[in-house]
Amino acid sequence: MAGHSKWANIKRQKARVDAKKGKTFTQLSRAIIVAARNGLADPDGNFQLRTAIDKAKAAGIPNENIERAIAKGAGTYQDGDSILEEIRYEGYGAGGVAVLIEALTDNRNRTAADLRSAFSKNGGNLGETGCVSWMFEQKGVVIIEGEINEELLLEASMEGGAETYEIIVEEEYKGAEVLTEVAELENLNQTLQTQDLPVKEVELRWIPNNTIEISDPDQARSILKLMDTLESLDDVQNVTANFEMVEELIAANIT
Prior knowledge:
By secondary structure, the protein is an alpha+beta fold. The chain has helices at residues 6-17, 25-38, 47-58, 63-74, 108-120, 150-159, 185-194, 217-231, 247-251; strands at residues 85-92, 98-105, 125-126, 136-145, 162-170, 173-180, 199-208, 212-214, 236-241, 243-245. The strands form three sheets. It has a four-stranded antiparallel sheet with strand order 3-1-2-9. It has a four-stranded antiparallel sheet with strand order 5-6-4-7, sandwiched between helices. The chain has a two-stranded parallel sheet with strand order 8-10. A hairpin with a 5-residue loop joins strand 1 (85-92) and strand 2. The chain is globular.
């Protein structure tokens, strides 16, 4: 079950070479709206909503804003706001890297224009629906932080229906990421917590089925700048790409 899996490496590589920007209040509030819309409006029965609320609180969003976002997602809050739509956009970055973007917007034209500009200014192009999504598969991921007893993790992962896990031991981070089918995510989350494993976060993530290795510094800079630009847009909730940089670039702290 364990092993080196590229889906974990990609996420960590970007974090290590990139000064990660915090999500804006708008993005965090919209994440709550999406979670409440897709499941129960009660965080006790909706792990996605629970995670979104925790992130919002950590960023200092007031409780009244959080409650308003939950109500909007549940359809019980009416204030004349435009209706928010969930849309997935797809495109290519430098070197043919596939990029998948999840957005929540009240203006499709504005969002598409912003995304097209971000791609064109950073060596890529916004594509048609379906051009890269076939390269990705959505999975549930449970993120654990802290010292890990691998024997306990293996046992709990198997019991909770996990597909694989990877233990991460780096200079400034220790933990693990456990992967499962979307339908099994809450079961896995509860099983790991029952075994007193330090669950930090639970999320849905698009995992690339294949990766492109980036060894050229200029391409690496273009891709990371594109990812940063996309993630900074208020309408954008999540960005996933299928690049994997060589260790030399990571060590050089390419930015």
